[in-house]
Design brief:
This protein is mainly beta and about 180 residues long. The protein is about 0% helix and about 40% strand. The protein contains no helices and 24 strands. Strands 1, 3, 4, 6, 7, 9, 14, 16, 18, 20, 21 and 23 form a twelve-stranded parallel sheet that branches. An eight-stranded mixed sheet has the order 2-5-8-15-17-19-22-24, with no helix packed on it. A two-stranded antiparallel ribbon has the order 10-11. Strand 10 and strand 11 form a beta hairpin. The relative contact order is 0.11.
């Protein structure tokens, strides 16, 4: 049987294998593509797909819990970077997904890049973070949907929040201790 595909996929020209620090713990997870995982990172029962959008960077001390998916929009077309699909991080340069130090991405979360989540941030159960920048010391309540915004440092976002534009953020701020 001869099957002809009508889909066109633009995968990066040179697939890079993950770089995983020996002091990281990876359990029952799939990690594909240009992913850097630093020391003392825990990834358990999750999928990290840096095959279309790439690279990903996960900083030390972070944890990626059960059933988390990290993925990103295509960051290359015909071997040329698409800058609008990347985020610049002063520590590591241009990336599709950046996870800072001591970040906790809890059960069932979808992170779809371009995304940057800065240090000491918690992303609550079954939330989605897409095309956004999340500041330091942020707590995102469970079942939240965040897209196309920048969340400032040191705030809590109420569970179940839907944030699609900057003006939505103030509606959902709660004290950090209430998450």
């Amino acid at each position: 049987m001869n099957v002809e595909s009508k889909n066109t996929f633009y995968l990066p020209e040179n697939i890079v294998l993950p770089t995983i620090h020996p002091a990281a713990t990876i359990v029952n997870s799939t990690i594909t593509g240009d992913v850097v995982i630093e020391e003392n990172v825990l990834v358990i029962n999750s999928v990290i797909r840096a095959d279309e959008g790439t690279p990903f960077y996960i900083s030390k001390g972070s944890n990626i819990q059960d059933f988390v998916t990290l993925h990103a929009y295509f960051t290359q077309e015909n071997a040329i970077e698409i800058d609008s699909k990347l985020i610049y991080n002063k520590r590591v340069g241009k990336v599709a997904i950046f996870i800072g130090e001591n970040v906790s991405i809890s059960h069932g979360v979808l992170v779809h890049g371009p995304v940057s989540i800065d240090n000491n941030t918690f992303v609550g159960f079954k939330s989605t973070v897409e095309s956004s920048i999340i500041g330091k010391n942020v707590e995102i309540g469970a079942h939240s949907y965040i897209t196309n915004v920048t969340i400032p440092d040191n705030i809590g976002i109420a569970p179940g929040s839907i944030i699609r534009k900057e003006s939505d953020i103030e509606k959902f701020i709660v004290p950090l201790t209430d998450i």
